[in-house]
Design a protein that fits this description.
With 309 residues, the protein is mainly α. The chain folds into two domains: 1-32, no CATH class; 65-304, Orthogonal Bundle (MetI-like fold). It is built from 18 helices and two strands. It has helices at 2-16, 18-23, 25-36, 54-57, 64-70, 75-93, 95-106, 110-121, 128-138, 145-154, 165-184, 186-193, 197-205, 210-234, 242-248, 254-257, 260-270, 275-304, and strands at 47-50, 58-60. A two-stranded antiparallel sheet has the order 1-2.
């Protein structure tokens, strides 16, 4: 009886609002065409793909392409480079937008806060190519700003940091933090704008300092948002920015800058176009991301009762 009643209610609601339900077709068709249909091509990872035979006509080889990647001599190095850069970005970059949002929200002068926000948002709109060019110009040992300052202070030429493998991770991570810090704080600012000001007024009456109000009112208000974003970031921990890594990469720092995304590009498009092998590596990357998403989501649900589902 309950099922019949629910179906009757749905049918009545659908007939009265069918125009609104019609709009759902647009995102549904988009997801099917651009998310589910391309999954058919993922089977290339299990085949010896041949252009002349097509996807369905190519020979099935099972896990051969995956085993080829696992036995590759630099498999461990590529996996470590990917994880180290991504974890470094997450650990260094995730808390900073939260701190920035809390600081900006605590400023009494709203006009000053808007000016600071605008200045901090601007780097987000700089393209990756332009940003990498700016970094190379600024850290040029001969003509760069930092190169000139280093020479003026120490009386010698600054070392070329782009040729040092150990410096690659720092350049990649902190330039990314600089570019996305302001933009990533927007969602936290939006969450803080919903905090009831009566809570702050009550805390002030009780003698709470500004820091105590931030710690016990503002921070708990944005923790659910922070948890959701942390889960989503964990689900893309293996996805290190391809364009930026490739632009910063050279023969001298390749031992630390070769990540899965650049390796897929090279084996798939540059060195003979081994599409089956490149697809297998990319699929392995996606499976690891999905597994991490499930693990972090489960842990977040158990520890803080906040999760994606």
């Amino acid at each position: 009886m309950k099922n019949k009643s629910a179906m009757a209610n749905f049918r009545r609601d659908y007939l009265s609002r069918w125009r609104l339900y019609l709009f759902l077709l647009i995102p549904i068709i988009y997801i099917i065409v651009f998310a589910y249909v391309p999954m058919v091509g993922a089977q290339i990872a299990f085949r010896d793909y041949d252009f002349t035979k097509g996807i369905w006509g190519s020979n099935w080889v099972g896990m051969k392409n995956f085993m080829k990647f696992f036995r590759y001599r630099d498999f461990g190095k590529i996996l470590w480079n990917t994880l180290s850069v991504s974890l470094y970005s997450l650990l260094a970059g995730f808390p900073l937008p939260i701190i920035l949002a809390l600081i900006l929200h605590s400023f009494p002068g709203k006009r000053y806060t808007k000016v600071v926000q605008t200045v901090l948002y601007m780097p987000h709109f700089i393209s990756v190519v332009v940003m990498v060019g700016m970094i190379m110009q600024m850290f040029n040992p001969l003509s760069g700003v930092f190169g000139q300052a280093y020479q003026a202070v120490f009386g010698e030429m600054m070392p070329d940091i782009f040729s040092k493998p150990g410096a690659f991770g720092h350049i990649y991570v902190w330039s990314g933090i600089w570019q996305g810090l302001g933009w990533n704080s927007i969602i936290y600012m939006a969450a803080l704008s919903g905090v009831d000001m009566e809570l702050h007024e009550s805390a002030q009456i009780d003698g709470a300092s500004r820091f105590q109000r931030v710690l016990h009112i503002d921070l708990p208000a944005i923790l659910p948002t922070a948890c959701i974003l942390l889960i989503m970031n964990a689900g893309s921990i293996m996805n290190v920015g391809f364009e930026k890594v490739l632009l910063l990469q050279n023969d001298l720092n390749r031992s630390r800058s070769e990540v899965i995304s650049t390796y897929v590009y090279k084996v798939g498009l540059m060195s003979g176009g081994d599409f089956s092998y490149a697809t297998a590596v990319g699929l392995f990357n996606s499976v690891v991301n999905f597994a991490l998403l499930l693990i972090v989501n489960y842990a977040s649900k158990k520890l803080g009762e906040t999760s994606l589902w």
